[in-house]
Every structure is written in structure tokens, then in C-alpha cells.
Amino acid sequence: MAYNLTMATTKETLAKVESQVVNIEKRLDKGDAKFDAMDAKYTKYIVGLYVLIIGMSGVDRIFS
User: Fold this and answer.
1) How confident is the model at residue 62 (pLDDT cuts 50, 70, 90)?
2) Which residues have C-beta within 8 Å of that of residue 5, sequence separation ≥ 6?
3) pTM for the whole thing?
4) Dihedral in degrees, nearest 10, Cα atoms 34, 35, 37, 38
5) Residue-level pLDDT at 44
6) What is the pLDDT of residue 58?
7) Distance (Å, rounded) from C-alpha 20 to C-alpha 35?
8) What is each CA distance from 4 to 9, 10, 14, 20, 44, in whole angstroms?
9) Cα separation of 23 and 11, whole Å?
10) Distance between first and last Cα of the chain
11) What tens digit of pLDDT does each residue of 2-22 get?
């Protein structure tokens, strides 16, 4: 009889753990999407800075 009670609690515990894993995976996917958006935004800023630096060095050579 004790074996059946242990199996029931084990199955319940396994179901709880599985639901927690699913929730964690959902949160990780949301965070991944946020980081992808930030990466795209900051990549544009970095490329803009490179263009600005190269442009300013060209302007410096023209006027010197």
C-alpha cells in the first residue's frame, strides 16, 4: 500500500516539475527575444559610431 502512495506523490511531483520547466522555458524565450531586440538596436548605434569616426577622420584630412 505504501508503494502506491509513493508512486502517486512521485507522479504529482513530476507533473509539478514539468510545469515549472515549461514556465522557465517560456521566460527564457521572452528574455531571448528582448536581447535580440536590444542587440539589433545597439548594433545600429555601433555602426553609426564607426561611420561617424571614419567620416570625421576624412573631414580632418580634407581641412588640414
Assistant:
1) confident
2) none
3) 0.52
4) 120
5) 92
6) 85
7) 23
8) 9, 10, 15, 24, 60
9) 18
10) 93
11) 556 566 688 888 899 999 999
| Residue 20 in grid coordinates | 515549472
Whole-number mean pLDDT of the chain? 86
Cell of 38: 536590444
Taking the CA atoms of 20, 25, 27 and 28 in sequence, report the sign of the dihedral they define: positive
- Quote the distance between the C-alpha of residue 20 and its chain's center: 19
Helices (H), the chain: 2-63
- Residue 49: pLDDT band (50, 70, 90) is very high
